[in-house]
Fold this protein.
Amino acid sequence: MSLNDPQWGKRGGGSGPPDLDEIWRNVNRRLAELFGRKAPGEETPPEGPSGPKMKFPLGGAGLLVALALLVWLASGFYIVDEGRRGVVTRFGKYTETMLPGPRWHLPFPVEAVELVDFSQVKTIEVGYRNSPKNKVDKEAVMLTDDENIIDIQFAVQYNLKSAEAYVFNNRKPDQIAAFVAESAIREVVGKAKMDFVLYEGREQIAKQTEQLMQQMLDRYGTGIYVQKVTLQSVQPPEKVQAAFDDAVKAGQDRERSKNEGQAYANDVVPRARGQASRLSEEASGYKTEVVQRAEGDAARFRDILVEYQKAPGVTRDRLYLDMMQSVLGNSSKVLIDQKSGANLLNLPLDKLLQQGAAASASSAGDSATSPPRVPTTPEPAVTVDPTRSRETLRSREGR
């Protein structure tokens, strides 16, 4: 509310400044209570036989007393700033809590006011001071559930939610909050494993510590509200840092080996499955081919059997000639056994074929090319009697 508002000073309640008339009436009421006099507006008893009512002298001493009284009364005016609360005590006992705005209380030594800041966010540092490098080993070292030692540095941010409880219930509430923070984090860490605290459980550890702190502070009636718990550093002690790094490196190597093995398995297994499928398909195809070839051979044999039964001699000769043609078709030499003699004659068909191919190539080529050389001592030509050779072969077959 602005000071230029014509209604300023005339509105009651906690939303604006109090009424000045009401303040003056409170002053008169408290003075009357203090000196045993009735407040203005109350009926005054009639004068008794004791005589007229005693009045203050109007001389210089009376003016000094009145002036001192006014100054004493004026010293009771105070202003409660925004974000603060005024805790009023009368002879050391709590009376009331004043909201922001201009206020008045009976001056010292009757009443006293303690201004409590509600807007200020205070910080508790556990395990370090001002910087994580300035570590406090006595506070930072903690024991986990699996009997491992770790160093934890964290900060707690809090403000006030009850001025009366903060001022009167405990002598040093800020120090109590620091002790509660250390106790809560030790309880939470003592129920967790080391790997959980170091890696995946940091946020959960901070949340559980915040909840446990709030429960303990409410039970002690400190009037403190915990806003946030932040873990600054979580690591093993410096004396075992090297061994811990080796253990962490070994764990990382294990995970890397597992990943490499999994990658190799992902590469080999599909390939082996594909190869197995291909072999299965090839075997199936080979089976089909063999079965069909056997069935074809069986059908051909049945057809030949039918023809053989009709003309055994002709069929036998035809089979013999087909076999000899298939056997001697790829041979470059022919051996002939004459029935009259025991000499074996060799026909150099391979050389004759080579010479014939060279002669045809030279005739088709340029005229300057020299003619092929003819061997000076050719082997004697032999005339083969096909009837005799056939009979010879038949005689061998009969043997």
Observations:
- The mean pLDDT is 75.
- The first helix runs from residue 20 to 35.
- The first strand starts at residue 77 and ends at 80.
- Residues 1-40+58-116 form one domain.
